[in-house]
Structures are given as C-alpha cells and as structure tokens.
Amino acid sequence: MTRRDFRSCREIRDEIRTGKTSAVSVMQDTLERIRTFNPEINAFRETFDDEAMAEARKIDERLARGEDPGPLTGVPVGIKDNIATTEGTTTCGSKMLDGYRSPYEATVVTRLREAGAIPVGRTNCDEFAMGSSTETCVHGPVRNPWNTERVPGGSSGGSSAAVAAGLVPATLGSDTGGSIRQPAALCGCVGLKPSYGRVSRYGLVAFGSSLDQIGPLTRTVEDAAIMLDVIAGVDDHDSTSAPEPAAVVELGGGFPEGLRVGIPRQYREPGANEPAVEREVDRAIALLREAGAEIVDIDLPLTETGISTYYVIAPAEASSNLARYDGIRYGHRSTEPSGSVDELYARSRSEGFGPEVQRRVMLGTYVLSSGYYDAYYQRALKVRRLIKNEFDRAFEQCDVLLGPTAPSTAFELGAKPDPVAMYLCDIYTVNNNMAGICGISIPSGTDTEEDGLPIGLHLQAQAFDEKMLLEAAGALETLVGFECSSLEK
C-alpha cells in the first residue's frame, strides 16, 4: 500500500475536475484495489461494479460538457450494510435479511449522488449494528488492516477498515453508542458522529431510534467536513431531522482563537486506559496548551453510569424495532415444520438472529415488560436526562471536550467473549448519543513500535455545534501530525 493510494476526497475531486485523472480511471483503480486487498480484511461484502462504472462515465461526460457534478465529483464511497441502497442487497450483517433488496435508497445516499459521489459497495458491520468489534457479522468478521489478527472496532468496522486500507477515501457508518468513532479510533481514521437530527435517518435500518445517527468515516477532518456538508439537513421523510442549516466549515484558517478545551476527570481515572492511550491524551493536551488553548478541568460523574443506562434504553428500542422481523411479512422464514404461527415466529427469529441480537432483544423485552418498566426503562430515561444536563453544564465552561475515544487499542479477534467486557469498549462514547451531541475521533499516534496500533482522540461539542467541533478537530489534527495514510505496506 503506497502513499499514492491514500488520496483524500478533496484530492480525488480536484484531480478529476482538473483533468489530471478521470472518474472512470479512479473507479477502475478502486475496484481493482478492493478485489486485491478485500479478501484479507473482509471490509466490503459486495461491490456495485457495473453501476459504479456507469456512474463514473456519466461524471466524465458531465465534466466534458462543462458541468460541475458537485463537491464530491467522482469520489468512490462505501455504504454501511444497514443503510438502504437500491443497488445490491441490504442485509445488516444478518441472516434475517439475507438477499433483501430495498425498493428505495436512504436520503444520505441520494445526497451523495447529487454531490457527485459514487457508491461503490456495501461494507460489513456487526449484525443490526449491535457490537463493538464487527465479529457478529453473519458474513464473517472484519479484520483490522494494521494487524489482521485484531478487530477493527464496531459496529462500523467494515467502513473503518475500508478507509484505513485505502480501498476508498470515505464511507458512511452509523453510530448508536460509538459505532463510528470507536472503529475509527481502532483503525486510525477520522470518524464523525453528528448531532442527533443533523442528518436524516431515512433509509437507516433502525436499532435505537432515539440514538442512531449516520456519519462519515474519512482520512482527514477536512473530508469529514465536506461529507457532512453534503449529507446534513432537514428531510421530509424523517420527522426527527432538524431544520438546522448545514455546518459549512472551511478549515485551514489557523488555530481557533480563545479555544477552551475541557478535560473530564472521569476519562483519566488511574488504570482506566492503556498507558499508550494516556500518553497520547497527555501529548494532545500539551500541544493544545502550547498553541494557545485554555485547558479546563471538567467533572462528568455519570460517565460510568452511562454504560448501564445505555444498555437499558438501546435494547428496549431494539426490541421494539426488531419485532417487525417475524418471517411472515418479511425477513428469514424457517423451513422447519411449525404447528402454529407462534412456533413459526420463534423458529424464524431464532434462526435469523444471531446470539448478540437475541441477547439484546430479550434484555429490551424484559425492561419494557409489566412490572419492570418503571424500575428499569423509566429510571434509565431519567438518568439520560441527567447525563444531558451534565454535558450542558460542562459546555458552559468549555467549547469542546477532549479524551480518549476508546480505553485501548485494537484487541485480538475473539479476545472479549464476555459481553460486558465488550460493552465497556464504548464507555467514552455512549453518553454522547444519549445527550444527542456531536463527537469526532481523530487518529493521534500508535501504541508501540512492535504492535504499531493506532490510537484515537475523542472531541465532543454541544448539539449542532459541528462548526466548533470540526475547527477544533482540524487544529488538533495538524498539531498531532498523524495521518491515516501512515499505513503503508
């Protein structure tokens, strides 16, 4: 993997616009690269070869006529397998939706096309986006390009691995409790989770409807800003999308004047993070202070409470959302003889859903059941409100929060069979979703010379303040001096 292969979205767009290359040539290189390297990491489940080449030819024809196809002219983009496209199949990494073809496409995919981007294929994910390692995917685990014996994070592991391996310059992921940011950290790329409502969820297969948000994974903060500007905005198909103007961000204007960076004490508890992770956070703080930022100590005492609160609310919403997969209207239907409709439901869902999805559906059904609703679900909603209030108070003292994205670097495949140990991978990201604020992970460095695994820094900002978030992230990206393109083979 050479440096030439790691061009950014902006670089590809500019080269196509100026005639240095063509959309067809870029697409040919992209598809060839996927064919060559994807078998080793399993980032892509399928590619849209014929459709993508046809779109590339149309882009070149428009340019020849003097038209401007848009800010993502000819850029190949991967789409997470839980975001609907009319091309190929949308399986959510599950046997339940094996072979399912969507009759419509997600709003974000339409907006990418309108901006000149070309969807090139589907990236693998944890089943129904439930996981932190992309090991629950029915199509097989995704492997981290930095070390193929390690996980890429999850649930958007295919999307992060595709960017880290240089297969495509950008992908779409979804984030319910950290599923964009955590894999971005483990794969050494940029992962942006927008504020809840900033981006339409129409066409995103629902997991936790009050938590889910679509966002980009890219090689640079600038590319993340370009992608956000394209996909953001109100959508008549999604009543939860906010009528807020897109956060158009022009980076490269220098260090944000008067930037106040909050450091939550709870993110730095002794022994909470691997030493290399702590080192990178310390380095970032020192660089920011030297650049003129004000460093502010912040208290977020409900940080640890967030995991237990999240794993009441998210499974409750998942239990409701996944009830539609009954093998009757659609979804996998068991071929085993069944004596009743109830038996058919049970067989179909037991066969169609994997162990992690079944675990969360049962947990969600339990906390919503009569006699337990008030004790668990209603109480979790109250704690969620307290978590939101805690962030509101924090942002009265600072502009952004800084900490590690994950407490460790990428762990080995199969190393976390205990579900609770897996859930704790998202300890620094889940509260962001419950509060509805925006967050971004940027690569900072690697752990050791022997392992060379990337480490991510997590920045958070108030809801709908993506402009501040991206400006701070762009400045920090420059200071730490680490690029996704550092991965070379």
Number of strands: 11
Largest sheet: 11 strands, mixed
Question: Which CATH class of the domain at 3-257?
Answer: Alpha Beta
Distance between the termini: 5 Å
Global structural class: alpha/beta
* CATH level-two architecture of the domain at 3-257: Alpha-Beta Complex
Number of H/I helices: 15
Quote the CATH topology of the domain at 3-257.
Answer: Amidase signature (AS) enzymes
Question: Mean of the pLDDT scores?
Answer: 95
- Uncertain residue segments: 485-489
Oligomer: single chain
Helix content: 25-40%
CATH superfamily of the domain at 3-257, by name, is Amidase signature (AS) domain
**Overall 3D geometry?**
globular
H-E string: HHEHEHEHEHEEHEHEHHHHEHHEEH
Proportion of residues in β-strands = 5-15%
Describe the protein in words.
By secondary structure, the chain is an alpha/beta fold. The chain has a domain at 3-257: Alpha-Beta Complex (Amidase signature (AS) enzymes), CATH 3.90.1300.10. The chain has 15 helices and 11 strands. The chain has helices at 9-17, 23-41, 49-64, 107-114, 157-164, 181-187, 221-231, 275-291, 305-321, 341-352, 355-368, 373-397, 419-423, 430-435, 466-480, and strands at residues 44-47, 76-80, 118-123, 170-175, 190-193, 213-218, 260-264, 294-298, 400-404, 438-446, 454-461. An 11-stranded mixed beta sheet has the order 1-3-2-4-6-5-10-11-9-7-8, with helices on both faces. Helix 2 (23-41) runs antiparallel to helix 3 and helix 9 (305-321) crosses helix 12. The model is unreliable at 485-489 (pLDDT under 50).
